[in-house]
Amino acid sequence: MSQYSSQHPITQPDHQARKRFGQNFLHDAHIIRKIIQAIAPQPGQHLLEIGPGQGALTIPLVNSGATLDVVELDRDLAGWLQHHFADCERFTLHMGDVLKFELHTLTQLPRSIRVIGNLPYNISTPCLFHLLESEALIDDMTFMLQKEVVQRLAATPDDDEYGRLSVMVQYFCSVEHLFDVPPGAFKPAPKVTSAIVRLVPHRHTKDQAMDTTLLRDLVRTAFSQRRKTLRNCLKPMIGDLDANALPVDLALRPENLTVADYVRLSNAICRLRRDATR
Ligand code: SAM
């Protein structure tokens, strides 16, 4: 297997990091090694890297022997990556916006693709929600995010950070905060600490929502006024439905409910609405 040099940067050394693309390039060899060890890519695996940038993670990922697709929005970086990996059959570059990229164009096989990315912080939440639409195709995801976002992803009921992001991501995946990464590991250095998180889509969901769109609306509505009781903040959703038939105490606040509670509540609303139209 031919090895690509991990000399960094692999591209034009005079590339000016573009703020609008959330470009903070990893340059700390120890951190890069730690991330690759956490991913542990294997020959034959199918990987998708979001925002390869100057290739800090891309080179060791390609060198692992895995098949790698990458999505990069910056035209200059995409051009240089294409040139650098021109001879590698296992490497495919997709130039464009990850938010418009459809995973099913890469694979139809359930749980067949591993997603990786030092995500541009300005699109990290929409990117997570976009990927979750294709969660059935994903084996696992390892991301660098702002530490504060990782804490929200991993938060449990009654934590200050517990909210819409925690409930919806934990509905689809298990969340593991692996380790923190200091600002000095990047060029330019961001203002905040980052963290590596692993998300693994559930193989079997015991608490299955009958209508995921309804669950999403419910969680959004509940956390839009997180200091109010559920009775108050869910008024627009419950309307004329029989509140006594709902399986949770409406005197609680949104942050008190577990993911399973939200699923039960959403399914109860779904049934009551169905009965009301009969
Ligand atoms: N992976 C590199 C590293 O770790 O050094 C670069 C990470 S940098 C934080 C984010 C990368 O995502 C940049 O290369 C940027 O151009 C790219 N990017 C930004 N917005 C994007 C989008 N909407 N779709 C795909 N790539 C994007």
The CATH homology group name of the largest domain? Vaccinia Virus protein VP39
Relative strand content: 15-25%
In the CATH scheme, the class of the largest domain would be Alpha Beta
**Percent range of helical residues:** 25-40%
**Major beta sheet summary:** 7 strands, mixed
Domain count: the total is 2
Rg value: 21 Å
Give the SSE order as H and E letters. EHEHEHEEHEHHEEEHHHH
* CATH topology assignment of the largest domain: Rossmann fold
| Alpha-carbon distance between the two ends | 64 Å
Q: What is the architecture of the largest domain at the second tier of CATH? A: 3-Layer(aba) Sandwich
Average pLDDT metric: 93
Number of helices: 10
Strand order of the largest sheet: 4-3-2-5-6-9-7
From the helix content, strand content and strand pairing, which structural class follows? alpha/beta
Ligand species? S-adenosylmethionine
Count all strands and give the number.
9
Low-confidence stretches: none
Q: What sort of overall outline do the alpha carbons produce when their principal axes are compared?
A: elongated
